Each structure stands twice: as C-alpha cells, then as structure tokens.
C-alpha cells in the first residue's frame, strides 16, 4: 500500500518503523505495549505482520498475521489485533495459529483490542480466558509450552483451515499489505 500524504503515521513500538495509522493499528500498538511493558516479552520475540502463505487448489494465498509471539525459536502464540467484537475474530486467528508453522499447531491464539482480550487453545479451539490477564506473561508461556510436543494436524482438517483463514482474512479492510 503506497503511503498517502494525508495518512497519519506512527512509530511501531516493536519494530521502531514508521507505519500508517490506519484500521486497527492503534489497537495493535496498545497490545504491543502490553506484551513488552506488562507481560515481559522482548521486542525480538514478537513478529509484527508475520507472513503466512497457504496453498488452496494450486493457488497461493499470501497474507500477514498481526503478531506472532516466539519464545526461543518456536512460535507459540498468534494474535489478531482488532477493534470491535473479538468473538468474531476467533475462527480467523485459530486458523492462522494452525497454519503458521508447517510442522505443528501453535499452542495459543488470541484476539485483543488493547483493552481486553480473548485467548484460545489453538489445538482444541476452546476458550482459555478473557481479559488482558488471560494473555500469558513470557515466563508462563515459556514454562507451559516451550517443551510441548508439536501437535500435528490431520491433512483433511488442514485443507479446511486454509479455506477458513482465507475466507476471514480476505474480508479484512483497512489493513497494510
């Protein structure tokens, strides 16, 4: 997306890069502050606009996931930063958490508007908790999931998750791509 002269710009808290302040960017910045200032993550453990690519019927669909949290070399949580009803983001971020790593499902998926959050077990899809307190601190995430065996996905389910992700993600508006 080309920068527009009338577009407001802000500095991304994690990367330090100047980014357009469009869509839910303010929500993402609030979440980034929470992750670093309150939850103890280092900026280098947070991937902003993490690339995701899925192949469906021979066509590649490329997009980005707002935030992916890694502890050590392993991605452990995918996050969608959005305004509005967080329940409506559940299927999209669960699908992303199931597709991001080629050999396993990330353990957690979350959606947040910077004021509250919803966190799900990405393997089962069950809600773990609501509110900002439900987002695990770095030490909790590391202790709980860093040595967890990878959860593989059934190939039939994998195909369905790709369609779910593309369907929800393609409806996002006012995002940088």
Question: What can you see in these coordinates?
Answer:
The structure is a single chain. By secondary structure, the chain is an alpha+beta fold. It has one domain: tt1808, chain A. The strands form 2 sheets. A 6-stranded mixed β-sheet has the order 3-4-5-6-7-8, sandwiched between helices. It has a two-stranded antiparallel ribbon with strand order 1-2. The longest helix is centred in the C-terminal third of the chain and has 15 residues. The protein is globular and about 40 Å long. The mean pLDDT is 89.
Strand content: 25-35%
Mass-distribution shape: globular
CATH fold field value: tt1808, chain A
CATH architecture group name: Alpha-Beta Complex
| Arithmetic mean of pLDDT | 89
Helix content: 25-40%
Model regions low in confidence, pLDDT < 50 over at least 5 residues: none
SSE layout:
Blueprint: E1 9-11, E2 18-20, H1 25-38, E3 46-56, E4 59-71, E5 74-81, H2 90-99, E6 108-112, E7 117-121, E8 127-130, H3 138-145, H4 155-169
Parallel strand pairs: 5-6
Antiparallel strand pairs: 1-2, 3-4, 4-5, 6-7, 7-8
Quick synopsis:
It is built from four helices and eight strands; from the N terminus they run ββαβββαβββαα. By secondary structure, the chain is an alpha+beta fold.
């Amino acid at each position: 997306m080309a920068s527009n002269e009338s577009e407001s710009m802000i500095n991304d808290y994690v990367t330090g890069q100047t980014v357009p302040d469009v869509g839910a960017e303010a929500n993402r910045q609030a979440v980034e502050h929470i992750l670093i200032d309150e939850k103890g993550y280092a900026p280098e453990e947070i991937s902003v606009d993490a690339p995701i690519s899925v192949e469906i019927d021979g066509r590649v669909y490329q997009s980005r996931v707002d935030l992916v949290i890694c502890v050590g070399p392993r991605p452990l949580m995918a996050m969608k930063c959005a305004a509005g009803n967080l329940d409506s983001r559940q299927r999209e971020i669960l699908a992303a958490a199931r597709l991001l790593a080629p050999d396993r499902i990330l353990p957690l998926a979350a959606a947040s508007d910077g004021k509250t959050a919803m966190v799900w077990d990405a393997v089962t899809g069950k809600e773990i908790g609501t509110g900002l307190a439900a987002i695990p601190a770095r030490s909790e995430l590391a202790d709980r999931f860093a040595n967890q065996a990878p959860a593989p996905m059934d190939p039939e389910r994998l195909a369905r998750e790709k369609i779910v992700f593309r369907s929800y993600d393609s409806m996002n508006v006012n995002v940088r791509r």
